[in-house]
């Protein structure tokens, strides 16, 4: 039996995602209700963005757009995200989980990022989105 050496490094060695998370001092029911409001979806997608059911497209005023891929109440929202008309599709996954009766963990993973993606800008964008959602839950 011979050892085989791959000719290319596996893609898993390249970080293709930005992860942002935080805990909010509100029950998951309250946080979910905020996400379903205009303010909550705009915090996530940007001004003008409206989440739809699975398979529905969305577009924000800044030109970002995509399609809702998965929508599970009080658990997860996943959508494709294009920074502009010519940008490749990336995937944003927001997961919610109760920590206890009055605390909810929110985590956004923005994955399938191209090599030249501005990860610092994206991290800041998603941090601000979670901040707005937490503030709106007050």
From TrEMBL:
It holds the Pfam family AHSA1. Residues 46-55 have a biased composition (Gly residues). Residues 44-66 are annotated as: Disordered. Residues 26-134 form the Activator of Hsp90 ATPase homologue 1/2-like C-terminal domain. InterPro entries: ASHA1/2-like_C (IPR013538), START-like_dom_sf (IPR023393). Belongs to the AHA1 family. This is Activator of Hsp90 ATPase homologue 1/2-like C-terminal domain-containing protein. It comes from Luteococcus japonicus LSP_Lj1. The lineage of its organism: Bacteria, Bacillati, Actinomycetota, Actinomycetes, Propionibacteriales.
């Amino acid at each position: 039996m011979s050892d085989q050496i791959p000719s290319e490094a596996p893609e898993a060695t390249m970080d293709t995602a930005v992860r942002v998370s935080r805990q909010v001092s509100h029950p998951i029911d309250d946080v979910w209700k905020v996400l379903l409001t205009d303010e909550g979806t705009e915090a996530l997608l940007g001004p003008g963005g409206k989440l739809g059911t699975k398979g529905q497209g969305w577009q924000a005023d800044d030109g970002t757009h995509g399609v809702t891929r998965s929508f599970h109440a009080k658990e997860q929202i996943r959508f494709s995200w294009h920074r502009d008309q010519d940008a490749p599709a990336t995937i944003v996954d927001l997961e919610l989980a109760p920590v206890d009766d009055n605390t909810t963990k929110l985590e956004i993973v923005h994955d399938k990022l191209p090599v030249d993606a501005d990860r610092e800008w994206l991290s800041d964008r998603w941090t601000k989105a979670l901040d707005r959602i937490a503030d709106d839950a007050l």
